[in-house]
Amino acid sequence: MNVWDLHCDTLSVIRRAESKGEHLSFEHNDLHIDLERLQKGDYMLQCFAAFVNLGDKTPGADPLVTALEEIDVFKRIMEKYSDRIAPVYTAADIRKNAAAGKISGMLTIEEGGVCKGSLGVLRRMYELGVRMMTLTWNHENELASPNVIPSHGAHSLWPCQPNTETGLKEKGFEFLAEMERLHIIADVSHLSDKGFWDIAQHSTRPFAASHSNCRALAPHCRNLTDEMIRALAEKGGIAGLNYCAGFLDNQPSAELCRSTVALMAKHAAHFKQVGGIDMIALGSDFDGIGGHLEMDSCDKLPMLADALRAEGFTEDEVEKIFFRNAQRFFEENL
Fold first, then answer.
1. % of the chain surpassing 90 pLDDT
2. Rounded to whole angstroms, how far apart are CA atoms 241 and 205?
3. Predicted pLDDT of residue 33
4. Per-residue model confidence as pLDDT tens digits over 138-179
5. What is the DSSP letter of 16?
6. What is the pLDDT, as a whole number, of residue 156?
């Protein structure tokens, strides 16, 4: 069965290795994702995020340079393995790559702060191939506030309490408008609750939560409330199931949380109940999450398919979650 994954952090891991003088092969490695396992897993498309941590205190660290270096990693991968994986810039590329028997790679950004508030940089990112972007990660930037309350930090309270007070800034609304003009998908994962509603109320195009689960089942601020799920579905958007234990489980401490395919299927069932089957996709967060993962490699997705069937999903619904919903969404919105 084809697989379409809305989010991974593989580019940042490869870049960090290279910055230390280490060689990390994309073809075969010990990460969650490599090319051999993408092929074995029957992947149709993998979204590759250029991820930047604005809290990086390394001397000389520059978020824009970091993003550009990760985009360079993406470009070199696409060139080196062009017989097996090819970039996606338009909906036609998705169909062309599939017809040629190639996996598609889509470039995204996780942290809109890499643009440093410049619409010119945003437009150049589009030229480089970026087709989806979160406005924030876990730090305040020129565009918006994250869903981690800035004064609390990501792990000071369990579960992380949502930021309901601050959302998009004036520059953030400017970016939203330009992203919609360019057809860069606005990604609300990591955005504050208020920021989510700012986008829901002001967007003119469908948007995505590339790697977020259901807050009703796992009460972490990174997840979506039922009201958000309904609004996202009504806007024609999609949400990618995140494999991170802390966003799947409801335990008294982060250390006790589990990442299992059964829990993923429970979140999928809740998404279906609240927002409908057509808004569910996959957003693994592979190579960006740690801890013990029952499904710890991109070639093990049949485990999730079996869990979804056991949860009561039909074969048609499993295919929608695995690739058809995401394929429709991007073909309609690129």
1. 93
2. 21
3. 98
4. 999 999 999 987 555 545 567 888 999 999 999 999 999 999
5. H
6. 54
Q: Which amino acid is at 163?
A: N
Q: Which residues of 309-322 are buried (b: 16+ CB within 10 A; e: fewer)?
A: eebebeeebbebbb
Cα 91 from Cα 84, distance rounded (Å): 19
Give the DSSP letter of residue 277: G
What value does the mean pLDDT of the chain take? 96
Confidence of residue 16 (pLDDT cuts 50, 70, 90): very high
Lowest mean pLDDT among 56-65, 155-164, 216-225: 155-164
**pTM exceeds cut of 0.90:** yes
Amino acid at 85: I
DSSP assignments along 158-206, one per residue: SSPPP--S--B-HHHHHHHHHHHHHTPEEE-TTB-HHHHHHHHHH-SS-
- Specify the residue for token string 């149709």: 44
Amino acid occupying residue 209: A
Which residue in the block uniquely carries the two structure tokens 């593989």?
Answer: 10
- Residue 144's nearest CA partner among 121, 174, 119 is 174
Report residue 48 CA to chain centroid gap: 8
d(CA 156, CA 167): 21
Q: Which amino acid is at 31?
A: L
What residues pair up with 191 in beta bridges, in sequence order? 146
Single out the residue of 308, 238, 282, 303 nearest to residue 8, CA to CA: 282
In degrees, rounded to 5, the angle at the alpha carbon of residue 91 between the alpha carbons of residues 231 and 230 is 10
